[in-house]
Structures are given as structure tokens and as C-alpha cells.
Specification:
The protein is an all-alpha fold. It has one domain.
Length: 173
């Protein structure tokens, strides 16, 4: 079996599940940090600062988000923390994964597009495109792996589906 991926293929479900759980734990740590008072109190300034150094044609985008979040910064900060907590729980226990993958993809793009400023400003010294886009791609890869493998017995979704068949529409790709 050496050289043909035998062990890896035989253990693909538990390996994929372990990677999903680890990614969920990263989201849990990130969510815990978002609940800190310092994040909540600095939220508006973090959003406003994302416009610095961006091209002028993007100023409307950043002005819009700065104005929207400035009205109720505490609401937005805690909403983000709660959303990250929900994503973390979903990934760790394997609950409503299809919704989590889709929501996580969109949320990753929003992180990249708003507070990370599309990873910019870009210039000769740019070395990073930001993490939000990478989060989005990880959610796509998790969805693809889930779709290729079918129901995973190492998830809560699998056990709910055995009792309620309609749950597959929420859980499976």
C-alpha cells in the first residue's frame, strides 16, 4: 500500500474531520478575542482605518462601511463575535455544515473586503493579501471535501440525518 496513498485514503474521513475541528477551534479563539472590550471599543476606528492608503475609486466602499458601522459599533462588534462563535461551534461539532460553509465563505470575503481592505494597499512593499480571502477558500475546500465524501459519521449532522432525513438539505453538499 505504500506509495498509493492507502493509509491516507482509508482514513480520509477522520483526517478531514480533524482538519475541520482544528479550523473550528481557530474560529473559537478568534471569537473569544472579539468579545474583549478592547475590540468592541475600537471597532469603529478599525473599520475607518481600513480605508487608509486605498485607491480613491474604493473610497465610497470604505466610507459606506465606516458610516454604517459607526451608528451602532457595539452591535456590529458583538454580532461579529457571535457569528464567529456560531461558525466555530458548527465546525467543531459538525452541525449544519452546508450553511456554515456557505456563510463562512461569505463572511471570509467580507472580512477581506472591509476591515482588511482587500489586503491592501498594494504597492512595491506589499507582501500579504490578507487572511479573509484564505478563510473563504478554506470554507470552499471544506465544502468540496464534504461533497466528495458524502455524509461523515464523525459529525453531529450524520446522527441528526439518521433520525430526520430532511436535515440532509441543511447539512450535506
Amino acid at each position: 500500500m505504500r506509495g498509493n496513498g492507502g493509509w491516507f485514503l482509508m482514513n480520509a474521513f477522520p483526517i478531514a474531520r480533524a482538519m475541520e475541528v482544528l479550523f473550528g477551534l481557530v474560529w473559537a479563539i478568534d471569537a473569544a478575542l472579539k468579545f474583549q472590550v478592547s475590540f468592541v471599543s475600537q471597532f469603529s476606528s478599525l473599520i475607518a482605518a481600513s480605508a487608509a492608503g486605498q485607491p480613491s475609486w474604493l473610497s465610497g466602499w470604505f466610507s459606506f462601511w465606516s458610516a454604517v458601522t459607526m451608528v451602532h459599533p457595539t452591535y456590529f462588534a458583538y454580532s461579529i463575535a457571535i457569528l464567529e462563535s456560531v461558525l466555530a461551534v458548527s465546525l467543531v461539532v459538525g452541525l449544519a455544515r452546508k450553511l456554515a460553509y456557505g456563510g463562512g465563505f461569505v463572511f471570509g470575503l467580507l472580512i477581506w473586503a472591509i476591515p482588511e481592505g482587500f489586503g491592501g494597499p498594494y504597492g512595491p512593499s506589499s507582501t500579504d493579501i490578507g487572511t479573509g480571502i484564505i478563510y473563504a477558500f478554506v470554507f470552499v475546500f471544506l465544502a468540496v471535501a464534504s461533497g466528495l465524501g458524502g455524509p461523515n459519521k464523525y459529525t453531529l449532522d450524520y446522527h441528526i440525518e439518521k433520525r430526520f432525513g430532511w436535515w440532509k438539505r441543511i447539512a450535506e453538499i
